[in-house]
């Protein structure tokens, strides 16, 4: 278990500057914007006729200002928390909100971190259960859009110092990495146990909960609109590396199978997670990847109905009868998705 007073410095691994990586790891790009701008100036001059490069450069320019502003505010909030942690004493968020952080960007960053604080135990437990190993600090940072170096370590130390959170993990004292997760302690905890049980209980064969979401392009889309089709509900957030990796597979799969009655609904969780991205950034992402299926805003009500999602992306394959036939968390290989969708398309509603 980490020491509440220790200061463990966690550094992100060095990032490659290859053109392919620029598309697959956008989260790291926005945290190093000055380097990216100079890099893209070279790349765009070299690939002047590459529409994809021009669109990504435009998306970076659109995203950089709000993301960098939130990153600066996040760094200030985390530094204050790091310096004021006390063993056995929980942070009082209302005091921080009312007395310490009075600027809008700081309060937004505080809200985002507070939201992450209560989701991290569920994420760690579900990751351990599904993949058989603890997540790394880098994976935690990616899943919660934490852009400040060492942010994941600070939030874990907040949990270790908070008597309300069960002592469910063991960490390496040098690196701060998680070495062991006691999932049973989380399951038996009043605060986290019920939510974790919903996430781990299995969705296959159960009716998909109703949802009604506002589309980025205007209008609404609901589960009722999808009756009689095979639908993939894809819950993601902007800047999520495994989501960035998943999107091209979904675009390809939709283009191939939509005429046969296959639909994808990409539900963006930025607002639920308290992230700073706006619709301009999200629409830029849609254009960049030539997404033609509906993209909508995920809601807190839908998030609760689907078990308070802790690992992104989360994918629910829903058959023509409205039953969940497959549930995945994290990146799913395109071939596996295609096989599951084809199987669902071959089944008749009365089967």
Helix and strand layout, with pairings?
Blueprint: H1 19-24, H2 26-30, H3 33-46, H4 51-84, H5 93-100, H6 104-131, H7 137-143, H8 151-161, E1 169-171, E2 178-181, H9 183-187, H10 193-200, E3 212-215, E4 220-222, E5 230-236, H11 241-257, E6 262-268, H12 270-273, H13 279-288, E7 295-297, H14 300-305, E8 314-318, E9 324-329, H15 334-346
Parallel strand pairs: 5-6, 6-7
Antiparallel strand pairs: 1-2, 3-4, 3-7, 5-8, 8-9
What does this structure look like?
With 351 residues, the protein is α+β, with helices and mostly antiparallel strands. It folds into two domains: 19-198, no CATH class; 202-346, Glutaredoxin. Helix content is 50%, strand content 12%. The chain contains 15 helices and nine strands. It has helices at residues 19-24, 26-30, 33-46, 51-84, 93-100, 104-131, 137-143, 151-161, 183-187, 193-200, 241-257, 270-273, 279-288, 300-305, 334-346; strands at residues 169-171, 178-181, 212-215, 220-222, 230-236, 262-268, 295-297, 314-318, 324-329. The strands form two sheets. A seven-stranded mixed sheet has the order 4-3-7-6-5-8-9, with helices on one face. It has a two-stranded antiparallel sheet with strand order 1-2. Helix 3 packs antiparallel against helix 4 (51-84) and helix 4 crosses helix 13 (279-288). It is globular and about 60 Å long.
